[in-house]
Amino acid sequence: MSNRSGRDPLGLRRAMSDRLLQALIAAMALLACLGFAAARGVDALGERWRLGAEAAVTIQVPDPTRTRIALALGVLATLPEVADANPVDPERLAELLRPWLGEQPNLTLPGVIEVQLRNLDADVALIGDRVAEAVPGAVTEAHGLWVGRLAALAAAVQGVAYAALLLVGLIAVAVVAVATRAALAARQESVAVLHQLGATDREIAGRFARRAMVLAVCGGVVGVVVAVPAFFLLARLAQPFGAEVTAESLAGLPWGSLPWRDIATVPLIAGAIGWVTAQSVVRVWLARMP
Amino acid sequence: MEPSGAVVRFDEVGFSYPAPGGGHGPEILRGMSLALDDGSFTWLVGPSGAGKTSALRLMHAALRPTRGEVAVLGVTIGTAARRALPVLRRKIGVVHQDLRLLPHLSTFDNVALPLRLARRSEARVAQEVTEMLTWIGLEHRASARPEELSGGEQQRAAIARAVVSRPALLLADEPTGNVDAAQARRLLALFAEMNRLGTTIVIATHSEDLVGRFPAPMMRLERGRILGHGA
Ligand SMILES: Nc1ncnc2c1ncn2[C@@H]1O[C@H](COP(=O)(O)OP(=O)(O)O)[C@@H](O)[C@H]1O
Ligand SMILES: [Mg+2]
Question: Which of A50, A77, B8, B145 has the fewest CB atoms within 10 Å of its CB?
């Protein structure tokens, strides 16, 4: 007989059916998805920029005799920061400069060495000093610096995205707390009766927590579903910077470029926030009773 | 802790509700001492405001004494760990003055609450609740909600919920408040039957009329003090 209400002695399905809670959680799940997408997207871009920047150090050797170039390469080979160093072929150099300089057979071009760093944080000035010591007049240029700055900007944007995610999480906690308190207030007398009949805090709080968790997971799923079109848009915008994603595209959409793992965790995180928040709100409330 | 046979023991118990502005209000139980033996039946009488309800609430650990000591079924209420109290409460049946049936549950589910809290199987719940409802004459009202029941039926449902799990101690606060004389007699017979089966019973009432119908030890409470014991 009436098994269903037996499982819901507090009538929480009505006291906490709040469509508003679900809608708010859905909105926050959507925001969280966008936050993740932004953080991951920027991460991918920043990674590419960093890769580009690694090749961004060049050394110019005026009066590029064989010995001077060899000397410079010898110094570079001893430096741990340097991953690789290669002289640029004079022919290729001339080719590169022709649009700017025109045909000038008499102009002596400096020798140019392209240096690849093991990581971008290496002290370029130190490398320059070492090479200049051995080969007077050698000039080291790190024109990859602006790329490094872009990477730093990307990191900052990413930090902001994570901060926004944290904020969304905190607001979700607040929203669930308010909804739980409202349900508690609506069922205050019933909660007191269960408590008096010998229900433990765990049993009572568990009922609210399960309800909050179900609502939050459902809201989270709705938010994620709404977020997917936005992802495709973002992914498409990022495509020219990211390259290579087209290989994985399916039906013209860049499925592979979306942070599916993060997106899938959003409803789970929402559920966890719902459960933990409702548990603590109800337990704090119950602690007032002996 | 528990000396021979006393199911409930009060030792110089004082109690005051918290004052609205913080701290304690006036003491409404003042130096109450008593001992209720296992299997006893006790009337707790006194005028309205004497402190009967508060004394019963101390007995089922809804309140903790502000001084003195309350021991129920071997548990010292004043000092017991909070997590030890639910187990104690499950051994005590309570009929509240205001009944406190859960409004959104059927009579059946209200009466089933203590059994489900004790994690009995649904088959046993069905059997025991149906038995209980038949005994108390509410079997035809099993699926009705409290608001659909008459005052007397609500009272019986509240009593059924209090006794369905066969508590060792039954506390009833003005349990005949909403019923006519004939109903009151029936309920009293029910309590007498429970008592004969071994349950320790305390009934608080301001009606000397009711007390006259079932001779048992009587404790008279006035302004938070026990004035006398009698029969
Ligand atoms: N929750 C409460 N807060 C403050 N005072 C209370 C509360 N409940 C009862 N009282 C006071 O305690 C005294 C005893 O009340 P109560 O125990 O209900 O007596 P009785 O059941 O004998 O009528 C009364 O003066 C009453 O006003
Ligand atoms: Mg009273």
Answer: A77
Residue B122 has its nearest CB partner, among A3, A5, A194, at A3
The DSSP secondary structure of B143-207, one letter per residue, reads: T--GGGS-HHHHHHHHHHHHHTT--SEEEEESTTTTS-HHHHHHHHHHHHHHHHTT-EEEEEES-
- Structural domain containing residue B162: 101-166
* Domain count across chain B: 1
- Angle made by CA atoms A22, A24, A28, in degrees to the nearest 5: 115
d(CA B226, CA B220): 6
Give the integer Cα–Cα distance in Å for B175 and B43. Answer: 12
User: Is B40 domain-assigned?
Assistant: no
Which residue from A9, A192, A200 is facing B105, i.e. has the nearest CB?
Answer: A9
Q: Report if residue A54 sits inside a domain.
A: no
In this structure, is the dihedral angle defined by the CA atoms of residues B60, B64, B67 and B70, taken in order, positive or negative?
Answer: positive
Interface predicted TM-score (ipTM): 0.91
Tally of domains in chain A:
2
Amino acid at A205: A
Query: In terms of domains, do A241 and A185 share one?
Result: yes
A132 by Cβ neighbours in 10 Å (0-12 / 13-18 / 19+) ranks as: middle
Provide the 10 A C-beta neighbour count for residue A253: 16
Q: Is position B96 within any domain?
A: no
Task: State whether residue A137 is helix, strand or coil.
Answer: coil
Nearest CA residue ID for atom 26, ligand 1: B49
Instruction: For residues A98 and A119, state if they share a domain.
Output: yes
Q: Are residues A106 and A128 in the same domain?
A: yes
Of A97, A118, A137, at which residue does a domain stop?
A: A137
Instruction: Tell me the two tokens of residue B90.
Output: 């499950």
Is A180 found in the same domain as A241?
yes
Q: At what angle are helices A260-286 and A145-186 packed, to 10 degrees?
A: 40
B contacts of A14 (beta carbons < 8 Å): 104
Whole-structure pTM value: 0.76
Asked if the model's pLDDT at residue B101 lies above 50, the reply is yes
Map tokens 């060899």 to a residue.
A70
Residue A129, domain extent = 63-137
| Residue B181, min C-alpha distance to chain A (Å) | 28
Query: Digits of tens for pLDDT over chain A (290 positions)?
Result: 444 556 777 878 777 767 888 899 999 999 998 888 778 777 766 666 665 555 567 888 888 888 888 888 998 889 888 888 888 887 777 776 666 666 666 667 778 888 877 776 778 888 888 888 888 888 887 766 566 667 777 788 888 889 999 999 999 999 999 999 999 999 999 999 999 999 999 999 999 999 999 999 999 999 999 888 877 776 677 666 554 444 444 455 556 666 778 788 999 999 999 999 999 999 999 998 88
Does residue A269 lie in a domain region?
Answer: yes
- Listed residues A103, A137, A171: the one ending a domain: A137
